[in-house]
């Protein structure tokens, strides 16, 4: 659903045109890279990158390429990034609070406007090492179910750019980060287990995201 910025520093690496086939499925928090895409192809182009790069070829002509974001990975790509834009909880939320305290958070309302990648065709990429949260729905299924992971466990990525454990990684994918903990919210303060259960005693913990240290190789 989203990438949660926790303890990272600096600005995002940048915004780049996203591959059309992935824009409707990208949740935010996937591992991605940049590749060159033939500008004459059927993939729609964001207007400010439609000049692309020009690469001379042996035939004497020129093949026009442009950088696009993709989460389809083989395990050897560099550099690597975390995607920011998701399909939920993006846009502008309109709502109202009547009779509430000043500063009360609006928990409901109507979201107007698409995510930035839908509105502009671009995806925001983060490269800076730091502390991030990746919502559980954006993780590889095996990782999402491994709530008893050891702190410091290595994280890799699948062929679809999902953060995963060693057994699910694609090819020779490198370690891109480490596990810190599963979290129930956007705070760095641990919540007592008794306050995160629902229903009867022994109910399911409502984990929202996995806190990770992101530190991918750069060369």
Strand content: 25-35%
Query: How many DSSP-defined strands?
Result: 14
Count of spatially separate domains: 1
Uncertain runs: 54-58, 101-107, 196-203
How would you write the strand order of the largest sheet? 1-10-14-13-11-12
SS summary, helix count: 3
Biggest sheet architecture: 6 strands, antiparallel
Oligomer: single chain
Structural class: mainly beta
Q: On the 0-100 scale, what is the average pLDDT?
A: 75
Choose one word for the global shape: globular
CA(first)-CA(last) distance = 29 Å
Overall radius of gyration: 20 Å
Helix content: under 10%
Order of helices and strands: EEHEEEEEEHEEHEEEE
Descriptive account of the structure:
Strand 4 and strand 5 form a beta hairpin. This protein has one domain. It has three helices and 14 strands. It is mainly beta.
Short description:
It contains three helices and 14 strands. The chain has helices spanning 20-23, 116-120, 141-144, and strands at 3-5, 14-17, 31-38, 53-56, 62-70, 81-83, 92-94, 110-112, 122-126, 130-135, 154-157, 163-164, 177-183, 209-214.
Features:
219 residues; 14 strands; globular
Write the layout of secondary structure elements.
Elements: E1 3-5, E2 14-17, H1 20-23, E3 31-38, E4 53-56, E5 62-70, E6 81-83, E7 92-94, E8 110-112, H2 116-120, E9 122-126, E10 130-135, H3 141-144, E11 154-157, E12 163-164, E13 177-183, E14 209-214
Antiparallel strand pairs: 1-10, 2-9, 3-5, 3-6, 4-5, 6-9, 7-8, 10-14, 11-12, 11-13, 13-14
């Amino acid at each position: 659903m989203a990438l949660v910025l926790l303890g990272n520093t600096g600005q995002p690496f940048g915004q780049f045109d996203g591959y059309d086939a992935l824009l409707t499925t990208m949740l935010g928090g996937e591992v991605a890279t940049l590749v060159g895409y033939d500008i004459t192809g059927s993939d729609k182009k964001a207007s400010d990158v439609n000049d692309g790069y020009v690469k001379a070829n042996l035939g004497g002509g020129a093949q026009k390429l442009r950088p696009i974001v993709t989460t389809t990975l083989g395990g050897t790509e560099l550099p690597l990034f975390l995607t920011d834009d998701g399909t939920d909880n993006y846009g502008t939320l309109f709502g109202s609070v009547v009779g509430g305290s000043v500063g009360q958070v609006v928990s409901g309302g109507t979201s107007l406007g698409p995510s930035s990648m839908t509105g502009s065709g671009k995806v925001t990429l983060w490269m800076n090492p730091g502390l991030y949260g990746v919502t559980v729905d954006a993780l590889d299924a095996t990782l999402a179910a491994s709530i008893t992971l050891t702190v410091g466990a290595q994280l890799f990525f699948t062929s679809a750019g999902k953060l995963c454990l060693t057994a699910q990684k694609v090819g020779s994918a490198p370690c891109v980060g480490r596990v810190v903990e599963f979290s129930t919210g956007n705070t760095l303060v641990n919540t007592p287990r008794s306050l995160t259960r629902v229903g009867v005693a022994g109910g399911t913990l409502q984990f929202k995201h996995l806190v990770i240290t992101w530190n991918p190789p750069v060369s």
